[in-house]
Fold this protein.
Amino acid sequence: MKRLKKILTSTAQRVVDYAMGNGLMQEENIATGERYITPGIPELVRVCAEEGIVLLKNEENVLPLNKDEQIAIFGRCQLDWFYVGYGSGGDVHPPYNVSLLDGFKNVGISYDEEIANLYEVWCNSPQHKADHGWWGHWPYNHPEMPLETEVVETAAKRNDKAVVIIGRAAGEDRDNQLKEGCYYLTEEEHNMLKLVSHYFKKIIVIMNCGNIIDMSWTKQYNIGAILYAWQLGQESGNAVANVLCGKVSPSGKLTDTIAHAYADYPSSNHFGNMDNTEYHEDIFVGYRYFISHPEKILFPFG
């Protein structure tokens, strides 16, 4: 927090000076070029992002990664990262975005380029290109590339660890739903985790989500570390890579309790009625309920 306060103080003055000297330019919808990068803002955005990342699990020193290791990255969000939440914020177009692959390059961590190229070709093909939708019709996820057993098996022979990314987005006028590809994993995501956890001994899962989703699957697979990285803005790749390599310690805390199952939430049977919402849990709302039912907690609030 001291690091963040120091940057906030110095950056605030620079932002004011920049605005007074250059004016707040709003004539364009898409920001491109150096003139839209306010001095100090990239550093501030990165630090805020780093401070918010939550380390849910780290067993057998899977993290941090070091520069002597070779890492295989699975999941299309390595390219189609969810940078911001949908809604008014989702219609903001920053002057640049740092992907996870860019972040790896910037901190000097080696990743499997053969796997990365597979994803790049697949994600950029016309039939699989990410659809970002429009107001109220944004995607909850981007469909995953089907993985073949041979691809994962051979990748495990030339890499030390694997990173798997799960991406989700909900937002204003586009609430989360209890279905696959939204609150639950898709069949392809399960297949990806199943294959990677079978052939790799050390796996890190990164949750690129704007909200919590079902995490019961973390008990099914051989996962050594889990980072809840949220949607971190334009410096996402740098922030996540800095945490992965140990340059920054993840100090974020969960703002929600992640239960073992959706049914473990006391409001699960009554939430969502557009006409009438009943609080059957009485005074045992939120954390009060889980304090008296710790057996239902998978990852605790705070």
